[in-house]
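Write out a record, fold above all:
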Amino acid sequence: MNKNTFCVLPFIHLEARADGFVAPCCMSQDFYAKDNGEMFHLSKDTLSDVWHSPSLKSLRENLLSGVKDKKCVTCWSEEAIGKTSKRIRENHRWGMELSELSPTDLGKLDIKFLDLKLGNSCNLKCRICGPASSSAWIKEWEETTGEDLLTNLSLTVSSEGTKKVIRSWPDVNVDFWTDLEKHLPAVKLFEIYGGEPFLIKKHFDVLRKSVELGYSKKQRVHYNTNGTIYPGEIADEVWKHFERVDIMLSIDGTGKQFEYQRYPANWVDVEKNIFRFMQNFSTKDLHICLTVSSLNAFYLPDYLRYFHKLGLPVWLNVLYGPDHFSMKNLPQAAKDAILQSWSTIKGESAILVEPLDSLKDFLQLKSDPRQEELFIPSLKRHDAYRNEKYSDFFPEFAKIIGYN
C-alpha cells in the first residue's frame, strides 16, 4: 500500500449523485463507467453493479500502487497547497482500516459507507446550485438557457390526473431500492443529501427497514439539509433507534443575504428551525455547513460571529463549481477586499479566526479570466428573472466588483 495515494473510500464507499451518476466521493469530478465507456446511471443500474465493476477495481488498484488517479484530482490539488484533503480526513476517520489490503482481496469488500444524494427534489433554487441538484431550478433554467433538461438530466414526465409530474431516478428505478436493502447489514454510515433530503420520503422507508431488522443500533446517519423543514415524526419515531444521527444545516448567510442566496427560503422560518434542531440535538450532532463562494466570502466574519453566538460549530465548505461563483476566480482587487474584511476578525476567538486562515491559500489561487467575466452576467441574468438585484443585498461587495 502506498500511503501517499491510498484512500479508504473506494474500498468502503459509493456516492450516488443527485443526477444519477455514481462517483468515488463528493469531491470527485469523475464518475464510474462500464467497459463500453457508458457511465453507470441509477435510473437503470444499481449500487451493486457499480461496486463490482472493473472501473472501481481499477481505481482501487491505482490508489494502492501509488498512481494518482484522475478521479481524485481535487484531493491531489488540495494536498499540493497544504490543505487537509478529504482523502486524509477519511483515512483518519476510518482508521485506515484497510491499510494492509491487497488487490487479491478486492472481491471480499462490503459497502460500509453510503453517500446518498437521492435525486433533485428540492424546494429551493439556490444561486450556487442548478437543476441537476434542485427540481425547483428546472423552469428558470430552461427559460433562461433554452436547454432541454428532461433529456439532459434523464428526467421523466408522468401524469397524475391533469398534473404533469417530473420524476428523477429514485422515482423510476425500483431495483435501486431493493438492491440498497441488500447492503443494509454491512452499512455503518449513511450520509443523506438531496435535493432536500426531508422531501425525499422513500429513504425513510429504508431507515425503518434497518430499524425493523435490527441493523440501526450499529448505524450512523448524517444529513445535510437546507433548514426549511423539521421532520418531527421521523425525529421522534425513527432516528432514536440509530446509534447516532447528526444534522448539518446548509446555511450560507443570515437574514436577507441568506434569502438571496437560497431563494425562496424565508430566514425567519429557517431561524425557527435552527432553534428547534438546537433543542433536540447537542452541538456534537448539529453543525452549520456554510458554503463559501464569490457571493458571500466578503461577509464571512458576520456569519461566523452569528453562529458562534449561538454556540453552533461551522464547517466552511469551499465552492469549486460552478467555476464563475468560485472565489478563486474573482479579480485581484476583490480578493484583496475579502482579505481585508477577514482581517477584521483578528484578535477574536480562535474558533472564528482559524477557519478563515484555512481559506486564504484557496482564495489566492490563480483565477481564470473567462470565469471572472461570467460572474456578473450570471448574477444579472437571474436577478432579472427573479426581479432582484445583488447590490440590494450585498451593497459593499457589489460596489467593489462593479455591479450596478
Remarks:
- The chain is about 40% helix and 15% strand.
- The longest strand covers residues 244-250.
